[in-house]
Amino acid sequence: MRRRLVWLLVGLALVLVAVGAVLTKLPVPAAVSSAAAAAAAVVAGFSTTRAAAVVKLRDDRRDARRSLLRCDRRGRLPLVRELDDPVQLGAHPAAAVGSDRVPAFVRRDVSALAEWAAITADEERCNGRFNARTLYAHDEWLSCMADSGDSSGALEIGRRLLDECRADGDVPLTVLRALRLGISVWAGESGDVAEAVRILHEVGEEDVRRVGEDDPAVRAVDFRLRYWRAVEWARGGRVRDAADEFRRLGDEVVSAFGMSSGLAVKVLRERDKVC
What we know:
By secondary structure, the protein is mostly helical. Helix content is 73%, strand content 0%. The protein contains 10 helices and no strands. Helix 1 runs antiparallel to helix 2 and helix 8 packs parallel to helix 10. The radius of gyration is 30 Å and the shape is extended.
């Protein structure tokens, strides 16, 4: 569509210039021909400028897309028939989860981190620091921070925020629970697996007392706890125990959440490392 617009504008500019040139040769009053030529020049200049702007916008978008997406040599997105490997689309291959291949089609949008930081600041300014909306925004912001590679930074801020929430005393338990689960992930990713295990053990026991053992949330926390506990075993030299746990946990997590879930991918990756 934009390509047709560019050629249309260029063609319009050429036609108007040609019309102006023809009018200068015809037996018409000089004022009329001069006015027509001036109008043609103005319109032609505008059309040319607009065409150049459209071309520049197209090139800028193509360059931006190349930096974020997997494109061919001409800067175009690949067609479905041109793809023979689902990993190129960012999907986890069901038949080779333990391979070294990683999804590489879409890079993480770093702007999401700045966007959530701004949202968190707005929520805190409008609703207060310990409002549930503000704290959930904090959780999303810190998750983006960890996903961008700064798990240690997310962990430090998360710990400090949790201490402040406990000191406030009015933060709902559900909000505290979500923040503690986030801290467990960031702690584990930062290397403090013992803290991740401790937090998940505490949250799991509290959930059982609150909603019972059959609640899906309790099972999800138990999966996380078993994952980090097995990671702790593997790093502590209990490789055989870790391998057995990863095998059992892998089957259970895949059955519960599917092979493409984040936890399933982590479990199967660790299983292939130690088995």
